[in-house]
Structure formats: structure tokens, C-alpha cells
Amino acid sequence: MITIIKYLLLSSIITISVLLSFSLQGTASGSVVVDRVVAVVNDEIITLSDLQREEEISKKVSGKKDDRLILEDMIDRKLQMAAAKRVGMDVTDKELADAITDIMKRNNMDSKQFEAALAKEGLSFEQYKAELKEQITLSRMFNKYVRTGIAVDEAEARAFYQNNIKNYTLPQEIRVRQIFLRVPEKATPEQLATIKEKAMKIYDRAQKGENFIHLVHEVSEGVTASQDGDLGFIQKDQAIPEIAEATQSLNTGEISQPFFGAGGYNIIFLEETRTPVRPFEKVKDEIMNTLYQQKIENTYRGWLQTLRSDSHIENRL
Description:
By secondary structure, the chain is an alpha+beta fold. Helices cover 49% and strands 15% of the residues. It folds into two domains: 4-151 and 307-315, Triger factor/SurA peptide-binding fold (Orthogonal Bundle); 170-274, Roll (Chitinase A, domain 3). It has helices at 48-61, 67-86, 93-106, 111-120, 125-147, 154-163, 189-207, 212-219, 241-247, 280-309, and strands at residues 24-26, 32-34, 37-41, 44-47, 173-182, 230-235, 259-261, 264-274, 313-315. Strands 6-5-8-7 form a four-stranded antiparallel sheet. The chain has a three-stranded antiparallel sheet with strand order 4-3-9. The chain has a two-stranded antiparallel ribbon with strand order 1-2.
């Protein structure tokens, strides 16, 4: 069962948490510090104790505490709640009661269990109602003045994709073919020398223009011989060290000198190098969501700026 305090209604903007009272604070000397105004928003005030309650919520929800950012958020909410009142988007008592009933049903609680759960979190029923009412109101205002009418079409997504193609580029890949000459497990120095000499002769033939695949069929051993020596595409940074080193200085179409690795002598032909890009269709939904979120954020910021410019605000922190 989810915690009542963390229940999110609609597109809830703020997670409800514990509210603590700080109207008067005791000091070490036993004196008291009188609460003070830290902000004025039109004809409403925000007190230091209000801010401290929000700090407690922020610490419990995100573990962060930034007085100035928290206060700015409180100012924004005051502005939105005032705007909601002006346009008649207040939440009625019945709507609030219905929302609470729905929350209790979702958590399989009756009213006594619900209030007991709130009390356990240090929250009174009236405090919870006030917070929930604010959440519902903010959600309605957000939907009406920010979310409504925002959409992203495929043309915008394609343009974003083309302009940010580097963000969808995958690591470089190489396609190589291999000639492999197996070396016996306990090969003598003479055997090693013989196989190495054979590898050098094959390398010379390839360098003089003989078809590499024909050479694979003629001399290569191991499982790749039946696959035209094709090792397929390998991410360059994930290739086995010997192949990565052998192809380090090769250009496409060039052949490495014989090198020892994986129990034999290898000759590598670098057939192709590519830098693959994730197809648009694979990232379309991701891009459209990114653009949608950007539009939401820009619209929200613009709306808040309008509310601020039409209001009297004093930040005294």
C-alpha cells in the first residue's frame, strides 16, 4: 500500500509530505525569535515559518534544501492560486471530498484509518486537505494554461534529429576478414618459424593483388574459413586486442602483416569502416517526448513570467 503522503493526484506538481509548525522557535538561551515576513505576493505574505515547513518537505522528498529556490517556488504557487481564484477555478468542497474518498478507496482505508495514517506522518486532516486542494488547483491551471494546445509533429522531430544527428551516432564499427593459420599447442621453434614464413608468403600474395577471399578458401583454417573469413562488423573499441592493434593503422582496403594471436597466425583485411546512426524510427518517440517536454517547460516559464510581471512581489530573504 502506498503512503498517503506520497499519493499523486492527476498530474500532481508537489509531493505532499510532513508539515511541521515553526511559528515560534526556542533558542539556547530560552528566548524566542518572532516569525518574520520573507516575501510579499500582492496582498499575501510568506513567513519564515512557512519557508521552514517547505524546507522540511523538500528534504523528505528530494533530500535537497535551497532556501532561495524553495521560496521562488512558493511565490510561483501563490501567483497561480491567486490566478485560479480570479478565473473561478477554485476547488469546491465537494470536489475535495470526492478526491479524498477516492484516495481512501485506492488505499483500502476508512476515514479513521486515513486520519491515523496522516497523524502517524505528523499531518493533520485539515493540513492535508489544504495541501491537496492546492495540488488539484495547480494541476487544473497547468492543464489549462500550459498543457492545452501543445503538440509535436513528425516534421519537427525529423528536423531535430537531423540537427542533432551526433547524439544518435553509435561507436565506429569495422568489418574485417581473416586468414588464420593454426599453430600446434606445443609447436617447436622450427614449426613456428615455418608457419610464420608461410603467413608472410600469403601476405605478399595478398599485397600483390590476389583476391583475399580466394586466399581464405585456399589456405585459411578455423571456423571463419567457411564464411569467406568474414568476422562481420565489430565495434572498434570492443574488438579483441590483437585485431584492434592490427587494424589501428590500416585504411579501408588494406591488409595487416601477420601477427600471432588466438593460437595461430592471423592476416586481417579491413574491408569496411562505418559509423552507424540509430534510425529515426527507433528514436522518434524519444525525440517527440523531448520536444514536448521542452515546449511544456518554455510555456510554463513564459506563463509564470506573465503572472509575475502583473503582480507585486517582494523577496526579503
